[in-house]
């Protein structure tokens, strides 16, 4: 019984785990297939434009990697189904054995019933009783025996139903596996075709190696020339910013000096204005302290006199005169306590008035200082918010990143190493590059190939957008996040590629550490 229970629990736990894992794998595959469909759509749009482009090859490689992930997930799902079929078969074997035992036991019950003629002839069996009590016992026995037969028949029926369910579940799992195998074969065929496509593309690259390598080197030369221009512009921006900062600091220091003089003058006026009031409040407080002390001492004296009279009255028999004196002493003591409380309240009010005046004086002085600073145009620095948004900047355009930051080997020509000051993003035709952060356009630079580069200043940082066919901003223009800076141009290999860079001062940094893609 324990073994049977353990086996059933094992089957249940596996079914739950299998269901969850299978659902996860199916969801992953659905998402992967969406990505594949998007890449196919992008490739269809750029097939005639891209010719032999790195972006096209990158998309083919990405699609192939996604196909292989789908296939691997399908393999895992197939293994889960095979395990499920195996466990279903074990359950079917166990249920068959149980059903055989139930049928054997039931047939034995029927044989025993046939042999026992008295049980079959129920009326004779009951009437042959020796007494009424025995007849009742025989009726009860016949009922229990009938119930037992019904129970055994019901057990056989239920076991047969459960067996049929298990067989059906196994059949469904087997059908699911067959469908999976068909899909797997289709995936393998597609993967094989796409691998051939990739090989053909690489071979085409190699056939045109001299031409493409020459164009690439020419592009690198242009990039170096552009880098020189960018460095010159940034150096001039930094020099100008330093000069402006020094001038600003001097002007700010003079403003602060004059503001402090004005603030000190106003503070002195406030002190002089509040001095007489403060002295008057101090005198009131001291008088209140003296009065409170006098009242407290008087109340204490009266209380002590009352205590002594009460003790004397307790020792001697009270007379009418003593009682009168006792009442008068109690009244005098109460009056003294009341005067003491009133004096204490007056003292607290005097202290509170002094504290309020002191607080008001401090607030007036601070207000005077703030007003003086404002009047003289003294400002506080808000800091560089560009750096505070690292990792959260918007992408300048959405597409496939074909070239990453730093020294990177060419994906086909292994003897060529590219030095990138930013990233390159392959986009659809007609895509506009957008500013990633608010700033000021420092420069719009035309290149020898007719493309343009826009450089935007963000405090100590610069964002750069190269390989634009048109520019929609001009030098000195203020831009916000998402402002279009120009349309992305077609590169030498036929793809539409944006060269995007971020510089911290005169040093380029990896844009992928700054944008949220």
UniProtKB/TrEMBL annotation:
Signal peptide: none annotated. Residues 300-336 are annotated as: Disordered. One of its GO terms (molecular function) is metalloendopeptidase activity. Keywords: Coiled coil, Hydrolase, Signal. CDD domains: M23_peptidase. Residues 22-49 form a coiled coil. Gene3D superfamilies: 6.10.250.3150, Glucose Permease (Domain IIA) (2.70.70.10). Pfam families: Peptidase_M23. Residues 419-511 form the M23ase beta-sheet core domain. This is Murein hydrolase activator EnvC. It comes from Chryseobacterium aquaeductus. The gene is envC.
